[in-house]
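Hello Y.,

Per our agreement to keep a running log of every chain we model this quarter, I'm adding this entry. I've kept the format consistent with earlier entries: sequence first, then predicted structure.
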Amino acid sequence: MYYLAIDNGVSGSIASVTDKGIVNYWLMPIRRELNYTKKKAWLNRIDTIKLTDILNPYRDGGAFCLWERPMINPLRWRASVSALRALEATLIVLEGLKIPFRYIDSKEWQRAMLPQGLQKEELKAASDSVAHRLFPTVEFTKNGGGDSLLIAEYARRKDKP
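Predicted structure for the entry above:
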């Protein structure tokens, strides 16, 4: 059984773990392109072709995916729009590959995987630190790159009898 985890967004990542110790990790594949507005601007989008290639081996029914719910905040309009675009692109890929999933709030997996009492600004560093201890051979990006690894490990632990 593979436990997939997706840290949503264009700066997110994907991880899978198994009970046999197999661990895989990818940065969310993105592509940079001109924005769709009249004003010159660039944006990052999920590369759905590359994402499909990454997730295709898990389509046979031997995987379950936990997917972190995106941050939606009207006061952070641009970040919210980006998160929703990433959510829709990823959702299309998961549905197309028929990979079962459920959304998870960050507080749920953080409560189980991180020390208590952390402040908001400490969470990313703590996530990276714990992920590095649990998966010392996996190279991942800093500043929250360990989130998907911890979500996948949370799913694996929660599924045990």
